[in-house]
Input
Amino acid sequence: MNLDDFTDLIERPDGGVRRDAEDRRARTGLPPGALGRLDELGSWLATAQGAAPVRPVERPRAVLFAGDHGVAELGVSTRAPGSAHTLVRAVLDGTAPTAVLARRLDVPVRVVDMALDCDPESLPEGASGLVRRRVRRGSGRIDVEDALTVEEAEAALETGVALADEEADSGTDLVVLGDLSVGGTTAAATLIAALCGTDASLVTGRGGGAIDDLAWMRKCAAIRDALRRARPVLGDQLHLLATVGGADLAAATGFLLQCAVRHTPVLLDGVVSAACALVAQRVAFRAPDWWLAGHASGEPGQEKAYDRMAFEPLLDHGVRIGGGVGALLALPLVRSAAALAAELPAPEGPEGAGDGTEEAEPVAADGAKPPSGEA
Output
């Protein structure tokens, strides 16, 4: 795989569509800024869809890349090493927060086994939403060894690309991207520190389980040691993912890049998806135009990555749990922006320059105007 090809394949969203969307917004008569970030979201959706007015977001999908990371052996997580399969089972069983929200929001979920450290038979056979694309059983301990071979990293990237094509071909109009991992935030923080040129202590967070101070120090030391191994391969993003990433992170990176190629908008979740987005930005600088930051998780690494990509999260509710939960919470906001951009009346000509308080002409239930004198 030649990652340089993505630079040519990924286009910027259509600026002409953005101007059309902004012109339509101006004709609604609402004062500029009255809808806050909903206006910005409406314009972004128009350019991502290549359509003004915006189409409703009707076929979203949550895609969660799952894997175990060898660095979890150092006690950097509240979860036991090799236990990511329990997170996967909870989503598949419908008992995880991700599953509850997805059910209420009518969002199908796909869980992709990229590097779970469990017997394949331990996952329910034929489970709806489970995608078996395992590259290896667990990723290596990045403080002392490579997470993957280069061949495994390439296979994971290609898997992500193929899954993005599947989503685009099936009509998915927005993807909520998340992860289900143990040790994944350590690998993500390492990638972010390496690409931002910062120290381990500035990107080390406490993860979804809010680790104690001793575990935080162990995590910081692991990231410091992994950074020493990452710096010599900073110029090669495939080797970087192989050295200090993991199969799930490599797949998510390929997924993000191909979503940009296919003009599929993506809502990012936590620090893991932020790290993958940062790697993908290094591959193709136009790719971030197709993504949104769903929420601020409180992880310093995520904040660093979003600062580097000039992303402003849609929500900041202190949600640290991962698994796409924060991004799912932001989805109704995106849908609301689409509805307002598409459905607010925007008459042509000077009559659209009012104050936004005009009474709309009554319309019957079947869409026809009532006879004169009837309301």
User: Anything to note?
Assistant: Confidence is low (pLDDT under 50) at residues 351-375.
